[in-house]
Structures are given as C-alpha cells and as structure tokens.
Amino acid sequence: MATDNFVQPAILRFDGHYDHWSMLMENFLRSKEYWQVVSNGIVEPAAGTAVTDAQKTELEGQCFKDLKAKNDLFQAIDCSILETILCKDTSKHIWDSMKKKYQGSARAKRQQLQALRSEFDTLRMKSGELVTNYFSRTMAIINKMWIHGNKTEDVTIVEKILRSMTPKFNFVVCSIEESHDIDELSIDELQSSLMVYEHKINQGRGRGRGRGSGRGRESNDCGNQQQHQHQDKQVQGRGRGRGDHHSTTYRPRSADKSNVECYRCHRYGHYKFECRTNLNRQHGEMSNLAEKEKEVSLLMVCHVKEETNKNLWYLDTGCSNHMCGDKSAFSYLDESFRDNVKFGDNSRVSVMGKGRVTIQTKGDSSQIISNVLFVPNLKTNLLSMGQLQEKGYEVSIKDGVCRIQDAKLGLIAQVNMIANRMFLLYLHNITHSCFSTKLKDAAWLWHFRYGHLNFGGLKTLQQKNMVTGLPQITAPSEVCEECVVSKQHRNQFPKGKSWRAKKGLELVHSNLCGPIDPSSNGGKRYIITFIDDYN
C-alpha cells in the first residue's frame, strides 16, 4: 500500500533478558532520534515564564517524539508486563520502571559486580578444554561486568588468560610474553596464536598414537622417536593371536621421560607398555590362560520405549502444580516463564513455560485448565488436587471414588480408583489449528509479506540491496483486489435522511467489543458502550 522506499526496522520483543534487550532497544531508539526524550524526559519551560513560539514548537516536537517512543516501547513489551506500566504517562517513566524492575538498584548492581569480579579472579582453564571454549567463558564474564558498569582493559584480560592456561601451554605462553608487547597485544591475536599451537599439539598426538604408546607435553616428543632394530631382546606383543609375536621397537633407556604421558593412566614419566596397571592386567591374563578358556559371548541390550497416552491425567494429592510434558497440548503457552520443580527423590527439573490447556467436556463444550506448568520429557500429566481446591472446586475421595464438584455446575468429574491405587482421568485436549496456503509467484508472495507494498517499491528494495534474500521482482499483469478495494472512492453518507432522537433514551447507540485477551485486572473480557443520541 505504501509508496515510501524506507523499510521500518523490526522492534525487538522483551524476552526476559533485560541487559541484552535494553542495549538493543537503546540503539533502536537512538537510530530514530528518540533517545534524548527517553533518557532526559520532556524539558518544559519554567513556570511563570513567557513561552516563545520557538519554545512552543520545540515542546511540541518533544511531545511528539515522546509519543512515538511510547508506541515503540509498548510494542516491545509483552502484554503480561504491559499491565504494570500502563499508568506511566511518558516514555522516560516507562524506561525507568523497566530498569528498576529488572536491573535492580545500585546496591544490587554492586553486589552482582563483586560476584563477577570474584568469578573472574578464580577463573582457570579446565583440563581438556578447547581454547575457543575458554575464551568464550572469559568474554561472557567480561561482558556481564561491562553491563554492570565495570570496563576491563584488554591488557588485564590478556594477562589473566596467559596466567590461567593449563601446563601444556607453558611453552607458547613464554614465547608470547617474550616476542610480543603485552600492552599492545589484542585479545583476538592472543586467541589466534593459542589456537594455532593447540592445532599443532593435536596433530602431534595423532602421529604419536600411530607409532608409540606415549605422548610428550611438547611437540618435540610427539611422533619423532627414532626406531631401531633390536635382535637380542624380544618383547612380548599385545596382539590377540596365539602365535609368538615380537615387537622390534626400541627406545633408549637414557631418554628423558619426564614429559611423556601414559595413554593408560594419563600420568607422566613412563610409556603405556611400562604402566603398572597394564602389566598387572597382562599378568592376570597370562595366569588365567592356563586355568580356563575364554568363552566368547554376545550381549544384546534392547530398549523399548513405552508409548503413553497424552490425554491421560493423574490426580495427585502430593503435586503442588498442574504439570504437562506435551507442548502440543497447550492452547496457550508463555515460554518466557522459568522455574524448577522438586520431586520426591530430591531431584529437580526445569520448568520451560506456563500456560493453559483446553479440554472438551460433554455436550461439545470446553473448559480451561489454567496455570499448567510445561515440564519437557515428563512422561505423565499431573493434576494437582490442591490447585483444584484453590480454584474453588470440592475434591472428595470415598469408597475408592474421587469426585470433583463445583458449587454452581455440580459434579465435574468422577474417577474410580484403578488397580495400583491411582486415580486416572481421561481428558480430551483441544488444540488450535489453521490451514496454510502457498504462493508459487515470488512477486505476489513478497507483496503480501510487506503489507501490500506496491511492486515498484519491491523493485527498489531489490535493486538497492536493502533486503537480504529478496529475489528479482517482476510486476504481474493482474491487480490486487485488496489494494483496489481499499483505494477506491467511497460515496458520502446521505445528508438529511438520518433520524435523530427528540427526547432522552428514544435512540441509544450501543457497541460490544470482545472477548479481549488478556483479561483486565478485574477478570473482565468484554466492553459494551451505551450512547444516548439525544444527549
């Protein structure tokens, strides 16, 4: 519909991570030149002073920018959070409210910063950890400290990484300190040097595994051992054949083994064939060989996955909340909700959302089970009797029968106890579905995607490379019916033919709006208006 070539950027929705959202939202507002009115508020002239035309124009411009900034913030905030900030009259009040609620006070920020500094001081590279993963862990802490107001210099980060590497990097750390100026060395250059050295170590270990039974800490000890033929001394092989097997690999006894790592016990100072654990195992195999033959057996493990009925719910008196493990059973799910649930064996599982489950009752009517926790991989669905009683239902168990009753609707459900003394309830879940259509013509597809943007505007976007992935657009010969209907001329309403009321309540105009989701604080979902034509 629009003919303007400018494409509005997408507004980031708040997903619970305030630090990332606030930084991206601030950049978004700065790009639209709204940040000054959001951070400083509307600057009004002092009371009692005469307002010039220029000041009046400036004030109107600030109010207009504040209105647009409020609109962008409302679109970026979820409806559940929007209820708490509707009373804020300016964009600055909305921004300060979100900051105070999700970032905390200055004291809380200082406490979090102290915890991050302590974590940074005790940070060490783990044994077997890759250089890339260790740098990612380090920079994650640095970024959190920067968000809380502490900027760390690059030289401090470089020195911290160099002194916290594992011992196998001691050689390259000394080389970097001698050949580079630490004050001028960047973090990316340091990571590149360490990754190159790590790659060489891994290549050396690969060659060492093919020829020897040990590996050195330094690259000079990996795969470069000279082999000699030793005819006088025969060493028993480690093969599985029955014949005599002799190894001709010989290593000088005078070689320094302090940097050699054993492949069996992973200790330094000896090779794998010299390891005590290996020798003990070989002696045990040799002694057992004279006593009994080793039988070859085949062990097969079969895992059978039991299919569960997703419509079965267990009535549980020890369950504090309704829980469901099937994501498709929810008619509405708030995936931003996070919590954890503790089971009877003291184990904890993560809650990845909370929502509503719609079930079908007799007479093709539907009921909603609210505040249901989504616990992934939960094998059985649980209905909390305590939560049902909080909702006003009466739950009674007598003579092996569990009854759920409502004061207004009467008997809701009646469940008989099964053989294992459990109460199993079958509920038919109702899931919302819709049909999809597919357009083969790319021009019409992108015309609809951009809200009926004219084909000339689509060509401009493609020619100027303003949209990544936009194909070449060819304007079709047909016309868009929706665009024609919305742009066509409309006749005016006839004048002088409308009938007006001559006394009160003779003609009342009414309008009904709803249902509205979410409901109001009072639980209302409909709005109806009555306007007297006479008054």
UniProtKB/TrEMBL annotation:
Pfam families: gag_pre-integrs, Pol_BBD, Retrotran_gag_2
Coiled-coil intervals: 99-126
Organism domain of life: Eukaryota
InterPro entries in UniProt: GAG-pre-integrase_dom, PolX-like_BBD, Znf_CCHC, Znf_CCHC_sf
UniProt keywords, alphabetically: Coiled coil, Metal-binding, Zinc, Zinc-finger
Residue ranges crossing the lipid bilayer per the database entry: none
PROSITE patterns listed in its UniProt record: ZF_CCHC
Listed name of the protein: CCHC-type domain-containing protein
Source species of the chain: Nelumbo nucifera (Sacred lotus)
